[in-house]
Amino acid sequence: MLEGSDVKRLSAEAQKYLIDLIRIDTSNPPGNETAACEYIGNVLDKEGIESTIIESEPTRGSIIARLKGNGEKGALLLGSHLDVVPANADDWSVPPFEGVVKDGCIWGRGAMDMKHTAAMFLAAFVGLKRRGEPLSRDVIYCACADEEQSGFYGMHYLVENRFDLIDCEYALNEGGGYCAVIDGKHLYTVQNAEKGVNWIRLITRGEPGHGSVPRKDNSIVRMSKALREISKPLPIRKTKIARQVINKMAGVLGFPKDIVISQVFNPLFSDAILKLVKSFDERVAEMLFALTHDTVSPTKISAGYKENIIPEKCEAVIDCRILPGQTSGEFRDMIAKMIDVDEIVPFDLPVTDPTESPVNTELYRAICKTLKKHDPGCVISPFLMPGATDNRFFRKKGIVAYGFQPLKSERLELKDYLDGIHGIDEKIPIDGIDFGVKVLYDFLRDFCA
Ligand SMILES: [Zn+2]
After folding, report:
1. Strand pairing category for 400-403 and 170-173
2. Residue 188, domain member (yes or no)
3. What does the pLDDT look like over 62-106, one tens digit per residue?
4. What do you get for the CA distance between the two ends of the chain, in Å?
């Protein structure tokens, strides 16, 4: 375990890094992540740690640094992204790029997603170097550009062009590690799977003509039929990861909720169970639905150019999130069979197949061991994220990658700070950073000894 004064110092440093990073506006677009990389480079430099900034384009930097181990074990990478989604200052109760400290929290765009992790990883990484103990494996710090816009200028670029710098056996990044209190028990997730992202353009065509003479094959009417069809809930899908998560949740919930939730895959009961869960916890119901269903959301539609002309073409875009166990191509084929459209055109990026890392690994066990030490009696569960993160690039390379950002707060409920992600008044509780730094540093010392 960490000594008290070390914890305080590392956590205070993490808080300062976070505030400084929030003040460097990396709204994407345009990103401007190089400025944040240079800040981190300076911190590392003062600690005597060499770093490299790789720019995929001018100003689109990612920074990588390495603590050398003796090579006995495979390298561990601590990954984060430095870009943030834009923030409209008028909507916020504090300026979004000032790193305001208020009510026991640090406020600002990126506080949760995910500059606090870039800061906590940095503090723990620096702490490990200062400690000077021999390491059995390399530890790589990597904070990169462009996660919010597909990763093309960030992790995707690094994997394609500078894989030598980030090659590792294990990687940590975003998407799990927060403490949720359910029925009085502490539940931590380790994000080991992500849904695939499929953006698909649909095109219908029909004979154009005067609006006074309706046409049976009106392209807009055909598209609206197709969208209505595709927006109905898709059948429930049973996957290994969903089974694992639901078993863990059942273990946390008391009787009779545990029995109810474990029946969610039963086609006779699943609809009723989802409704029931919604009545006592809307968030858990949303998560359960995402965990057991592929989803389709129409997000764009365009057709027509004059009030009295029937257009020959209608285009729509659907955003589909697909569960592990299928490829993007297979899902598209299924969609094609369900609807009557003339063309189905996939996007290039960020389209990605679902990804999953196994949990029967030394990394997962080490995370569990550390969490149980710091929060005895807690439950740890694998987790499937409905969205995509940079973890997917590592998993495609066969690297075990988890979302793990340990965070527990006594003063703020989980939903209060999760709501800030991509929202307004994003903030992170300072006691959460204290906990996160303590867990991370302790984990690193154990896993890399
Ligand atoms: Zn993020």
Report:
1. parallel
2. no
3. 999 999 999 999 999 999 999 999 999 999 999 999 999 999 999
4. 13
**Residue 346 belongs to domain spanning:** 196-234+300-352
Distance 40 CA to ligand 1 centre (A): 18
Tokens describing residue 436: 């996160």
Determine the Cα–Cα distance for residues 30 and 23; give it in Å rounded to an integer.
16
CA dist 141 and 449 (Å) reads: 17
For residue 358, give the CATH number of its domain.
3.40.630.10
Q: What is the CATH number of the domain that holds 339?
A: 3.30.70.360
Higher model confidence: residue 304 or residue 289? 304
**């700070």: which residue's tokens?**
417
3-state DSSP assignment of residue 423:
coil
Residues in CB range of 5: below 8 A, 6 or more apart: none
402 inside domain: yes
User: Of how many residues is the chain composed?
Assistant: 449
Give residue 124 CA to ligand 1 midpoint distance, Å. Answer: 20
Domains held by the chain: number: 3
**Residue 108 and residue 75: Cα distance in Å, rounded?**
33
Distance 75 CA to ligand 1 centre (A): 23
Q: How far is the CA of 173 from the centre of ligand 1 (A)?
A: 9
Report if residue 187 sits inside a domain: no
**Ligand 1 centroid from CA 108, angstroms:** 14
